[in-house]
Amino acid sequence: METHYLIDYENDGKNGLKGCEKLTISDFIHLFYTDNSKNTTLDIFTNHGKAELDIKKVPAGDQSLDKHLIAYLGYLVGKNANIQTEYVIISSDKGYDKVCEFLRDECGNSISVSRRSTIALKQVTQKKEVKQNAEKKTSVSKVDPAKKTKLNQQIQQALSSSETQYRPGVMNEVAKVVTSLYGNEKFMNDVHNALRGMYPEDYLDVYGDIKSILSKYATNQDKKADCDNKTLLHNEIQQILSKANVGKEVIAYVPGLVIKHCDEKNDLQTIYRAIIQKFGQKKGLDIYNRIKKHI
Known about the structure:
CATH architecture of the largest domain: 3-Layer(aba) Sandwich
Organism: Inconstantimicrobium porci
Largest sheet: 5 strands, parallel
Shape: globular
Low-confidence stretches: 122-138
Number of domains: 3
CATH class of the largest domain: Alpha Beta
Domain PIN-like: 6-105
Number of strands: 5
Radius of gyration: 20 Å
Oligomer: single chain
InterPro entries: PIN7 (IPR041494)
Structural class: alpha/beta
Distance between the termini: 20 Å
Protein name: PIN-like domain-containing protein
Order of helices and strands: EHEEHEHEHHHHHHHHHH
């Protein structure tokens, strides 16, 4: 799946580009700047990973850059209408959130669009968590060292027994990150964001393999927040199915089905039966096996 990053350079400057060196060939950077942009130094673009870089200078003026960026976002949405694509506006300006909400309302489940202040999710999550912990002491609960050790062991065991063949070192890396975040108020969400920053291509497999373990160590509030984050879950299921090339009909139907039933008592059973009924036993079972660990 392609990901397009639209950078409001006038708002955040080079800070918004943190993490761009880790981008892949499926990523695209569209950088917008004006003569008013702070510290416009093109030497910082010597390392933007494997992503394609497109620099656009627009006229300075009252919200001129915002208007050009939004217009180009609309152009990309129309251009890529038949392609699984994610759009991320990189800016600290929360005014863009209304634009993202509008596009999601108009386009429904066919679009993934969001805003954040930097390309790198991991760095943002960590900095935000540090700030929250400093301002609100209750956001991190006291951690039992014995439980932390057990969590580390269970994470490594789950990854070692996974059908996915991870490269050497991944088990230790993941276990270290998970245990460092254990005790956070939004433990599962923080782990998800950290893994996405570490493994852009494989984080869904990693998170899916350990999600059931994470839920055992999360607070009731964290579990509810994880289940209620339906946009995140929808995008995960959509990406998994797109990667599996199961067909447009499946991609259009299954994510919405999962969202509809994800908080029900017998959610897995209900989702399984609905998929089998619509796509038949063989194809339905294949689809269900691909998504069940992520629900």
